[in-house]
Amino acid sequence: MTDSDTGSKIHIDADWKAQAQAEKEKLAQQAKSSEGQGPGSAKSGPGGLPPATFESLVSTMATQALFSLGAIPDPRTGQRIVHLDLARHHIDMLNVIEEKTKGNLTDEESKMITTTTYELRSRYIQAASGARGAM
């Protein structure tokens, strides 16, 4: 037998509505006060990682390119390793992102990716020229 068969209806009174509204406001206040505080907050992703944003994507790819250009030492060994093919791949991937997102970026995002790819290309050319001169 269901509630509709017995004719019973759910009765929601004003007190219940007030209590539900108070709980909702309390949760919203707690969420607002915890923003930006520690791992798992609204300003970080799971495990304290930065949020998944366009800026994070570009930064990640740029870091990988810099690592491959020897600009960033290996954290385990402290050695700088130059792997020009891998650096070029990461720079090319940033170029793909730039081309595929053209017209869909804010002015800040567009400037960020344009500047980043330009600087990485310049570093790549310097590293590649230095590698040829060392031969």
Key structural traits:
0% strand; 135 residues
Label the structural class: mainly alpha
Most strands sheet: none
Please provide the ordered H/E string of secondary-structure elements: HHHHH
How far apart lie the N and C ends?
87 Å
- Based on CA atoms alone, the radius of gyration comes out at 26 Å
pLDDT below 50 for ≥5 consecutive residues: which ranges? 38-42
* Mean pLDDT value: 81
Total number of beta strands: 0
What share of residues is helical? Answer: 55-70%
Shape descriptor reads elongated
Share of β-strand residues: under 5%
* Count of DSSP-assigned helices: 5
Spell out the blueprint of helices and strands.
Blueprint: H1 3-6, H2 14-34, H3 54-68, H4 84-101, H5 107-133
Helix pairs in contact: 3-4, 3-5, 4-5
Task: Walk me through the structure.
By secondary structure, the chain is mostly helical. It has a domain at 52-133. The chain has helices at 3-6, 14-34, 54-68, 84-101, 107-133.
Quick overview:
The model is unreliable at 38-42 (pLDDT under 50).
